[in-house]
Amino acid sequence: MSFNIGLSGLYAANKQLDVTGNNIANVATTGFKSSRAEFADVYSATKLGSGSKVVGSGVSLANVSQQFTQGDINNTGNVLDMGINGSGFFTLSNNGSTTYTRAGTFKVDKDGFITNTNQTARLQGYGVDANGKIINGVLTDLKIDTSNLAPKPTSTVSSTINLNSTAPVIDDTVATGTPFDPNTLATYTKSFSTPIYDSQGNSHVMDQYMVKTGANTWKTYTLVDGRNPDATGSDPKVTAPIATTITFDTAGKLVSVATPPATPAAPNATNTVTLANWVPGKVTNGVWAANGAAPSASGMVISMTNTTQFNADSARSIPAQDGYATGQITNLTIDGTGTLFANFSNNQSKAIGQVALASFTNEQGLQAVGGTSWKETFASGIPGYDAPETGSLGSIQSNSLEESNVNLTNELVNLIKAQSNYQANAKTISTQSTIMQTIIQMT
Q1: CA torsion 88→90→96→99, rounded to 10°?
Q2: In terms of Cα–Cα distance, which of 116, 201, 190, 191 is closest to 154?
Q3: Is-cis flag, bond preceding 261, omega within 30?
Q4: pLDDT tens digit string along 103-155?
Q5: Structural domains in the chain, sorted by start
Q6: Are 179 and 322 in contact (CB under 8 A)?
């Protein structure tokens, strides 16, 4: 019996050496999770159970469990390198065969799909609709969309403006004063320019000319490309647009914005100026002509809500407008939620997908299939999918990879222990052999 006990110990020590050696071999493997050999003692038993004087029968390998502790995350500079900081697994699909991994070394294949290193499996995630909204719930092959971003006509313009309360009053009446003329500085107090866009992505300049006409009253004249946006025909000369009247209270706060037919007594309720009849065009050889593009279907709304009249220089913050020209993709960024953003040459960005992470009730039940990947089993339970940073799922760190979680110092110590165990069990067999030889010599 002692021979069998010693043999079981040799077998156990050998398995421990194998597990330790495998850990050491993968100390530099991205996303690798170390394993631990777990043993159980063996006792003989009858149908009536084990007696109090039963001697053990050795040791058995109970399990080789993987340790899903966090590995260090190191920067690589490659945007498609992704490390998971926390729990969860990347999901890969190879023609319907699903595997899970922590190794976030991804590449783009010839068709634009994000794949693993050997480009045999595609990274799974959530797609986007036409407006760039993430479509949660249905996994799909993630793909880098390199198409141009279509232009968007400007529909809203907003900014914060202060008009100097001490500026001199300008009489812009035709009969007694000097009518507004954008080419004559004396006919307006201050001007502001804003780039706007038509439906084909052509850039235009919208100018706002502010004229102080009273103690708490201003007028604003709006031109696009130096032309009255309400003008008709091909005449490129300026035809003065209808003025919008802006009224302030004694504290310098905005009271009303009124464009005829509205009046200061009955202004519009939104404090906006709307260019409803603007036709995009350009002047060629002194002749204006429509360029074939269109403005926003809803017109262009200029918000005047954040306008004040204080004793400070007439100035404006950087304007915000929602239009843009055609954009070509310049680079890709990935945030902590795993959302992939395509960045374009027109300073716009658009979500093109989101990485999905899988979680399991029992990670120890996963079956290792090589290539730093696992498959689900009955013991692991079915996977749950969701976006990173949702619930207990970790976050994504782009330009980074999770290193192996093997602690080399501990593994070298385990190697020494396994070697000692092997030698000690070999010694029990040698001792038993010596005893057997002694008994034989006695007969």
Answers
A1: -70
A2: 201
A3: yes
A4: 999 999 999 999 998 888 999 999 999 888 999 889 999 999 889 999 999 99
A5: 2-69+405-442 (no CATH), 73-149+328-402 (no CATH), 156-321 (2.60.98.20)
A6: no
